[in-house]
Write a structure and sequence with these properties.
Enzyme class: transferase
Family: Belongs to the class V-like SAM-binding methyltransferase superfamily. SETD3 actin-histidine methyltransferase family.
Strand content: 5-15%
CATH topology of the largest domain: set domain protein methyltransferase, domain 1
Number of helices: 21
Strand order of the largest sheet: 1-2-10-7
Number of strands: 12
Distance between the termini: 46 Å
Subcellular location: Cytoplasm
Shape: globular
Organism: Bubo bubo
Largest sheet: 4 strands, mixed
CATH architecture of the largest domain: Alpha-Beta Complex
CATH superfamily of the largest domain: set domain protein methyltransferase, domain 1
Pfam family, one: Rubis-subs-bind
Radius of gyration: 26 Å
Number of domains: 2
Structural class: alpha+beta
Helix content: 40-55%
CATH class of the largest domain: Alpha Beta
Length: 593
């Protein structure tokens, strides 16, 4: 996570362009909060709203210029103090050093040979910044009263970070001083850099991230100014948008889940030193040792002295990396794009299809994923498409026919087609669907490649163009793969080839045997839960912002920066779960045969 740029900013408390009256600032903040609390605009209006919100944010930033807290010197000036502090407090600091890896930024470099699976790094709990340490800090009083902080660990960590940064005697200062002063997430993009993402799938999340961050800032600005429990916070006299953007970006790019001390639940944490490691493909090799109460990381592979030590962040798409981590990862084997599908309620076979899907644990409308690797679809999406394309007779066989239950459990297994006709239909449909998605882009793959080669672009612009290029390449691969499958099954049908038969022993094979990740198709739609939580907090903020600037609703969750935390003791995520997590707040397309 060292691959972040560090841009010079003004010294703390100096360089303010003008004296801004509290009333003037509150008026701007109120206008921003009102704008950010408005309903989501209709199709084609998101860019207009983004520009309007950005204009208000820039007005606020201009009036706050020079008021942000920053540290003197360069980031790497503080690395020796970080190592000293970590060593004194029980972390491992031998066998590696912090180094600059040019394009990737700062990371960990091996100073000796490190073998694969060797425990080379551990960080005890006392060094971590957690929601629990936040509750025991100066933030505790406000935390006990504010429902947003109680519900959203990432927001709590952001304020914990801001409060500790403002405290010259903070225990965590050696860590905080080594954090980047700016990040490369879209929150830091210029308007023209964001424009390169127009017509991409990622742009909607970029708009949402910017709007939510601005709304959070405006909301908490009022809380800090009006809530009695915020009176002792070191942010009372200076809480700028740039400060908040920095804090949420620091948390967004670094947060991880760890167990609480008693191991009964998980909590969010920032993990000093470990978060200097950059990402590569592989498996998660970090866990939490409850017995020794420390975060532990074993080597992903053999590392020679002088080589960079990488870890695996998780099975994230490049859109997730760009939006939440601020980098684009070339050759990302887990890259994917969204495809929204649903059975139309006007389909005369809707009830039967819905029942078969329900028995398989699949919703009638969902957001699935097309993957960069072969095959482009998961077992869950294969099962959905098979049901979507079933004839009435095929549906009856899966509902009341002989071995109906067994057939439900093999819906996602590519080795056991429903019929050759069904396979031809589903691959024909997928080919057409992916082709339609490709046509929504304003540029082609060739256009983007040429643009990257012939223009002098900022790092953010390059990242944006690579992201939109990557989306189209995945869709093109999906079209080709679907066409090849369609042709294969058409030939099987024409040749009168017998359908593969399965026996009872095959029923356990719930995986798509072509993919490298084979998983059960019965799963929970995780995104439904997240969307419901988002709605709760939207309602809470919209209903309560006029009353002293704080929320009194229960069980609310902030529709804020999307948590990209990975459970540290979790093994490689499966494709089915990725599909479930790919859902968005947009309406799901309903499609007919």
């Amino acid at each position: 996570m060292g691959k972040k740029s560090r841009v010079k900013t003004q010294k703390s408390g100096t360089g303010a362009t003008a004296t801004v009256s509290p009333k003037e600032m509150l008026n701007l903040i109120s206008e921003l909060l009102q704008k950010c609390s408005s309903p989501t605009p209709g199709p084609g209006k998101e860019w207009e709203e983004y520009v309007q919100i950005r204009s208000l944010v820039e007005k606020i930033r201009k009036k706050q210029k020079g008021l942000s807290v920053v540290f003197d010197g360069k980031r790497d000036d503080y690395f020796p103090e970080l190592i000293k502090w970590a060593t004194e407090n029980g972390a491992s600091t031998e066998g590696f050093e912090i180094a600059n890896f040019e394009e990737e930024g700062f990371g960990l470099k091996a100073t000796r040979e490190i073998k694969a699976e060797e425990l080379f790094l551990w960080v005890p709990r006392k060094l971590l910044m957690t929601v629990e340490s936040a509750k025991n800090s100066v933030l505790g009083s406000l935390y006990s009263q504010d429902r947003i902080l109680q519900a959203m660990g990432n927001i709590t960590l952001a304020f914990h970070l801001l409060c500790e940064r403002a405290n010259p005697n903070s225990f965590w200062l050696p860590y905080i001083q080594t954090l980047p002063s700016e990040y490369d997430t879209p929150l830091y993009f210029e308007e023209d850099e964001v424009q390169y993402l127009q017509s991409t799938q990622a742009i909607h999340d970029v708009f949402s991230q910017y709007k939510n961050t601005a709304r959070q800032y405006a909301y908490f600005y009022k809380v800090i100014q009006t809530h009695p429990n915020a009176s002792k916070l070191p942010l009372k006299d200076s809480f700028t948008y740039d400060d908040y953007r920095w804090a949420v970006s620091s948390v967004m790019t670094r947060q991880n889940q760890i167990p609480t001390e008693d191991g009964s639940r998980v909590t969010l944490a920032l993990i000093p030193l470990w978060d200097m490691c950059n990402h590569t493909n592989g498996l998660i090799t970090t866990g939490y040792n409850l017995e020794d109460d420390r975060c532990e990381c074993v080597a992903l592979q053999d590392f020679k002295a002088g080589e960079q030590i990488y870890i695996f962040y998780g099975t994230r798409s490049n859109a997730e990396f760009v939006i939440h981590s601020g980098f684009f990862f070339d050759n990302n084997s887990h890259d994917r794009v969204k495809i929204k599908l649903g059975v139309s309620k006007s389909d005369r076979l809707y009830a039967m299809k819905a029942e078969v899907l329900a028995r398989a644990g699949i919703p009638t409308s969902s957001v699935f994923a097309l993957h960069a690797t072969e095959p482009p679809i998961s077992a869950q999406l294969l099962a959905f498409l098979r049901v979507f394309c079933m004839s009435e007779e095929e549906l009856k066989e899966h509902l009341i026919g002989e071995h109906a239950i067994d057939k439900i459990f093999t819906l996602g297994n590519s080795e056991f087609p429903i019929s050759w006709d069904n396979e031809v239909k589903l691959w024909t449909f997928l080919e057409a669907r992916a082709s339609l998605l490709l046509k929504t882009y304003k540029t082609t793959v060739e256009d983007d490649k040429s643009f990257l080669e012939t223009h002098d672009l900022t790092s953010h612009a390059i990242m944006a163009i690579k992201l939109r290029l990557g989306e189209k390449e995945i869709l093109e691969k999906a079209v080709k793969s679907a066409a090849a499958s369609r042709e294969y099954y058409t030939k099987q049908m024409a040749d009168g080839a017998p359908l593969p038969k399965y026996e009872e022993s095959n029923i356990a094979l719930l995986e798509n045997t072509v993919a490298d990740s084979r998983l059960p198709i019965v799963l929970r739609n995780l995104e439904d839960v997240e969307e419901q939580e988002d709605l709760k907090i939207d309602e809470a903020i919209d209903g309560e912002v006029t009353e002293n600037g704080f929320v009194n609703g229960e069980n609310s969750l902030f529709n804020g920066t999307k948590s990209e935390s990975e459970n540290l003791n979790k093994e490689k995520s499966n494709r089915e779960t990725e599909d479930a997590k790919e859902s968005s707040s947009e309406s799901t397309d309903e499609v007919k045969e």
